[in-house]
Amino acid sequence: MKSLFEDEVMTYVPPRARSPPEPGTSAGYGPCGGLAPGGALKPGGRHVQRAPMRRDFEAKLRTFYRKLESKGYGQGPHKLRLEVRRAHLVEDAFERIMAASRRDLQRCRLNIVWDTEDGLDYGGPSREFFYLLSRQLFSPYRNMFEYSANDIYTVQIAPERPTDRDDILEWYRFAGRVLGLALVHQYLLDAFFTRPFYKALLRLPVSLSDLESLDSSFHQSLLWIRDNNMDNCGELGLNFTVTEERSDGTSIDIELKPNGRNITVSERNKRDYLDRIIKWRLERGVLEQTEWLVRGFNEVVDHRLVAVFDASELELVISGTVEIDVHDWRANTEYRGGYHDTHHVIMWFWAVIERMSNEQRLRLLQFVTGTSSIPHDGFAGLRGSNGLRRFCIEKWGKANALPRSHTCFNRLDLPPYPTPDVLYEKLVLAVEETNTFGIE
């Protein structure tokens, strides 16, 4: 299914298109929806710099697990015994986990028994269980999930539900329970999901930047609408409807709000239109599956407890903080705009990377590429919107600007800062504040 209005929007030129801001004048998105976080505008347009907002991820994690323990999560005294066969792992896990009560899922300690390998579970069997189960359950080959549009190492819920399973929604509920159990018992999953997926688990609103890795052309269309005065675009004829093409070749007009076909998109209501069409695009075909998955997740862990995390942090909790190989990263980075490997700003950049903790490095990777996942073949396997695309650092802007990112290109726009300390401060500020921005 796809929207039919992108081509018209992207080829239309209004009488007075808004000029792009000068580099470094304000925070916002780059040509590919690049994030440029870190500030607000006072009346009159003057940019106000904010002090870095530090997120102590490890402290949040400790607090989260202390709360789980204090509320009895996974403490017993009873055990949840899951007997599974290696050759029928997913089916056996579904039968056992879906038969368990909500209280048992929350309170019981896990006891994984593989085939005839009976014995005490001190963590090894459970760790292997979640690793192997996640590899199979969230694999696109099961047709419940699919690779996201731009890469082959993050997955999302598939909009086309398998037609050979009458109980498919129960399977999404099962997937949510698996996520919750792994979180409660502190086992990592061998799966990385898209940012909207983690936001759904946290019940957080989606934003324009969440579209970039899923549908780059649609994202570009909405950026065009955001950056142009719609009062000068009457010939475009946009209203609060969207035309959706179905898999059977038919199409249908969907109203984004009551009486939407009679409401013209103007500069005044443009923000409302963008909010609604973003929500429609991200929920299209997956709303029911997502609701059942989140239901299963919350049957294991109370949503108020996980609310301490943002989407980036939840990704790290569920899929792990993979240790980044800085030498591999640098060896597979390219430069543009006058930068090169021996440029003093680039030398400072890599010195800053060495100075960062691994969690900060993962944050930076999320900021630039949209995910903390690293391909099995390392940074050489990074993918962008059009296949393989290496990490890139481009010279951009002035020394008072913050770095910005273009996730569809894996590109970091890095201003030529005067000292290593300024570079470190600006980079940390940009990375730490990305989640405070929506479509502004």
Automatic annotation (TrEMBL):
Keywords, comma-separated and alphabetical: Repeat, Transferase, Ubl conjugation pathway
Known catalytic reactions: S-ubiquitinyl-[E2 ubiquitin-conjugating enzyme]-L-cysteine + [acceptor protein]-L-lysine = [E2 ubiquitin-conjugating enzyme]-L-cysteine + N(6)-ubiquitinyl-[acceptor protein]-L-lysine
UniProt GO BP: protein ubiquitination; regulation of dendrite morphogenesis; regulation of signal transduction; ubiquitin-dependent protein catabolic process
HECT domain residues: 101-440
Record: active site: C408 (glycyl thioester intermediate)
Region of interest: Disordered: 14-47
GO cellular component term, pick one: cytoplasm
CDD domains: HECTc
Taxonomic superkingdom: Eukaryota
Molecular function terms from GO: ubiquitin protein ligase activity
Coiled-coil segments on the chain, per record: none
Transferase is among the record's keywords: yes
Enzyme Commission code: 2.3.2.26
Pathway as given in its UniProt record: Protein modification; protein ubiquitination
Protein name: HECT-type E3 ubiquitin transferase
